[in-house]
């Protein structure tokens, strides 16, 4: 399983707003198959670190934030166009820290889980299309008890018809294509997580 302790949604958006190719899009490297990454065995060639050096142990990958503005993360070198992403992790504790698992496209389509470090009882699920943030009514808080104290498996299952978010094997949210009112994410996305 993939494990993490800290991540940052802010850095993900900041990096993509600077490098946003809305006018032209280069070809993306597609995954095109199923992979299983176990960070307990160390780093892998399919993910690249930025914003800080992760450490690896028998618990998986750990990200450290030692000063304001740090935002370590791992990003896949591949893109997926629909699929299922499963992560087993502990969220990071601490006010002001946001752990996240994000599917993010070059045109700022996004599907994510976010954990606030000041609250270990819930997780937020979100989606965005083309970076449209004029309203923030696409988020939903879902139960995720003791998410900083124990490893929990989280799943994003994304198809052309719907997105489903799972916490510990329980379906907590389904978003149908029509429910998204023209804001359904539908461009190839990288898998990102970090601090």
Written description of the protein model:
- This is Podospora anserina S mat+ genomic DNA chromosome 1, supercontig 2.
- InterPro entries: Beta-glucanase-like, ConA-like_dom_sf, Glycosyl_Hydrlase_16.
- One of its GO terms (molecular function) is glycosyltransferase activity.
- One of its GO terms (cellular component) is fungal-type cell wall.
- It comes from Podospora anserina (strain S / ATCC MYA-4624 / DSM 980 / FGSC 10383) (Pleurage anserina).
- The protein is mainly beta and 195 residues long.
- The chain has a single domain, classed as Sandwich (Jelly Rolls), CATH 2.60.120.200.
- Helices cover 5% and strands 37% of the residues.
- It is built from one helix and 13 strands.
- The chain has one helix spanning 9-18; strands spanning 47-50, 55-57, 60-62, 73-76, 83-89, 98-105, 110-116, 122-128, 140-143, 152-158, 162-167, 170-176, 189-194.
- The strands form three sheets. It has a seven-stranded antiparallel beta sheet, with no helix packed on it. A four-stranded antiparallel beta sheet has the order 5-10-11-12, with no helix packed on it. Strands 2-3 form a two-stranded antiparallel sheet.
- A hairpin with a 4-residue loop joins strand 6 (98-105) and strand 7.
- The longest helix is centred in the first third of the chain and has 10 residues, at 9-18.
- The model is unreliable at 1-18 (pLDDT under 50).
